[in-house]
Amino acid sequence: xxxxxxxxxxxxxxxxxxxxxxxxxxxxxxxxxxxxxxxxxxxxxxxxxxxxxxxxxxxxxxxxxxxxxxxxxxxxxxxxxxxxxxxxxxxxxxxxxxxxxxxxxxxxxxxxxxxxxxxxxxxxxxxxxxx
Length: 131
Known about the structure:
Blueprint: H1 2-17, E1 20-22, E2 32-44, E3 47-62, E4 65-77, E5 82-91, E6 100-104, E7 112-113, H2 119-127
Antiparallel strand pairs: 1-2, 2-3, 3-4, 4-5, 5-6, 5-7
């Protein structure tokens, strides 16, 4: 119960305290506006964590989950030029509002190389101070 309460407080505080800054629309996304919270940047040696928000113009479906926005905590390796997702949450409304549809934290994925001219590259550059 304590872990659930802590998770809910973390998700609520992320929404309330975040200052979402819209990224330039010149990236690979269609029907999505991507935002970043520069205040969420945490650096430790060559690795940086940063929150981003993917806001869909129309409802998006993954499996049986229908949502309009997703918040993601990403880890970027500034030396190796790789990224991985640490946690994400899906919401029923735009800008991380509405009902929490799904949430996963402590994601244990392998880092993947940054692909040029993608949203991930833009996020990587912001996180690593290259933009």
